[in-house]
Amino acid sequence: RSQEVVGAVKSLSCLGDVISCEQQQSDRWQLTAEGDEIVAQGSHEARVFKSIPEGGITQAELMKSGPHAKIGFSKAMSNGWLLMDKSAEGGPRVKRKVDSIEDNVSSMLCKIKQTGVEGLPEKDLKDIKRRKLVQLVVVKSYRVTKGASFTTTLAKQETELTPEMIASGSWRDTVFKPYNFNALGVSPEGGHLHPLMKVRAQFRQIFLEMGFCEMPTNNYVESSFWNFDALFQPQQHPARDAHDTFFIKEPALAQDLPADYLERVKTVHEHGGYGSQGYGYDWKIEEARKNVMRTHTTAVSARMLHRLGQQKEFTPVKYFSIDRVFRNETLDNTHLAEFNQIEGVVADRNLTLGHLMGILREFFHKLGIRKLRFKPAYNPYTEPSMEIFSYHDKLEKWVEIGNSGVFRPEMLLPMNLPEDVSVIAWGLSLERPTMIKYGYKNIRDLVGHKIDLQMVHDAPIYLLDI
Fold first, then answer.
1. Would you say 379 and 403 are in contact if contact means Cβ atoms under 8 Å apart?
2. Could you check whether the bond before residue 67 is cis, i.e. omega within 30 degrees of 0?
3. Is the entire prediction scored with pTM above 0.90?
4. d(CA 250, CA 291)
5. CA dist., res. 359 & res. 353, Å (int)
6. Which of 116, 353, 447, 452 has the fewest CB atoms within 10 Å distance of its CB?
7. Which residues of the chain have pLDDT under 70?
8. Which residues are registered as beta bridge partners of 306?
9. Cα(4)–Cα(13) distance, rounded to whole angstroms?
10. How far apart are CA 198 and CA 317, in angstroms?
């Protein structure tokens, strides 16, 4: 009932100056249900005292005398009202120690019920509060008086001006609800970056700070020529089998391949050149034209370097890309059939392995990774090649974080790049550092149709001090 009255008061307050309302609040101590019971029947300890006959009673029988016998017995003993003979026949026996008692607890609660806690010692109030015999109640009230526009007939206030009101002129006699310009309104729903996108933004910012330009990576479907052949990867390489690569059914074959460049690539595969003996097999255009879901963004790097080779004069470049690639992987808690690859490429004259190691240290230092090791490795299109390892303090071991190398002359020179130009490159996945930083053990919790969308909302922004 009181809620209805409060609702009516608040509704009238929203109508302007119809009423004047002032909220008031006060605190008062009130007896609990147990406290009311003590006022009516006496305290638990007093009731226990009165229940003991002149010859006494066994403790076991006393405990069965009522629901509050245990606490009443404890309080009566501490007050010195009872004594217990532990050597009595039939078990411990409880007897009265005094002839009469004063039930101060019951008297105190009667006084509180009538006049409140004024004058009650703080110690006594704490004691009955601890026994949950009283509780502090907050009383809210409203002082309501007539306002300047008080009326007993209420008209509904309009909240908006409509075209019909303007056309009919009824707006002149209409009472509009005043606007509250201090109201915050409903917060608009905003989008939230996925953890992968947050980490991607940090990688991208680091590349841009180091003077790199982003490569266009919007072609997920790539020809085998750019994905494999242009990188001096032989057509018999296991990575080109169906169990490692997704082949496109329609359109199955690529059409627009640069004819003169294609011939130079065919020659270096079959017979070698530029100091290489090649692979010595019959290179087939049919294999090169097969469309695939790109297995690495290095296919994009190959296109960009070929475009660079067609310039009249060579200019040094620094490229990077961060985008999705696809591989026919066995799915487990750390591998999916698609993932994001981060790649950096630098082309300049007379670059060496030392330049690659130096730029890698600078790149990973910006990520907060300072403990680095390099291990010799093999890649079909880089020589020399290196795997990159970082010491993981949480795992307490060295973990592989990327791959790198210097592109082979068999890849670069058919593109018409100058002989003294070297290209250094490195790559790593986006998912692995994201999983480590956010503490994911299963990649399906980070990517895929089963992820918790609330995770995207709640995920913090992390700095990549992996």
1. yes
2. no
3. no
4. 9
5. 10
6. 452
7. 1, 243, 460-466
8. none
9. 14
10. 27
